[in-house]
Write a structure and sequence with these properties.
The protein is mainly α. The chain has a single domain, classed as Hypothetical protein af1432 (Orthogonal Bundle). Helices cover 68% and strands 0% of the residues. The protein has helices spanning 3-18, 27-30, 39-57, 61-70, 75-78, 83-86, 94-101, 107-122, 126-148, 155-164, 168-178, 185-190. Helix 3 (39-57) runs antiparallel to helix 4 (61-70), helix 4 (61-70) crosses helix 8 and helix 9 packs parallel to helix 11. The radius of gyration is 18 Å and the shape is globular. The protein starts with a helix and ends with a helix. The mean pLDDT is 94. One of its GO terms (molecular function) is 5'-deoxynucleotidase activity.
Length: 192
Amino acid sequence: MTEDMQAKGTAGYLFEAGMLKRAKRSGWWIAGVKDPETIAEHSFRTGLVGAVLAMMEGADPAKVALLCLFHDTQETRIGDIPHIGRRYLTAASNERVTADQISAAHPAVVSGVQAVVEEYENGESPEVVVAHDADKLECLLQAVEYREQGYQNVQPWIYSSLGSLKTESARQLAEVALSMTSLEWQKVYLGQ
């Protein structure tokens, strides 16, 4: 494959990733949220949450943020299948979807992205554990925000996310988040 073709394949992957800015997280529709966050919005905050958790847990924040950034990129091809829907479907693995997404990209991109997704899906390092906790903690934070907006059916997402957390730091942040409002951060900085 020529360099031009590899560049075109890589640019194509980046355009495809841009679809995540338009694709909604479908599980929230089950809870009645009329205009849920996009997959990209979820992935952005998951990366921030992951970096913060990594700092608290003594893991590598850059590696965790990278794992979080790529954790849902496959949803450009398979969509955001809610957990209840997964029991009725047999979907390709995230590793296989990723391999298809990047098959025409630059070889360094192919090997790099495949390694990130493979590690997130199958690894057991502290960074992988923190990245998975970041995904669940971000979901909990979003559910708290939706609950404040009047969507009462999000409580199962809060319970499920809370019950999935593995690290002490994530559990601590979740408990504190559940005891405050999403705008309470302003009081800290305004001295109230």
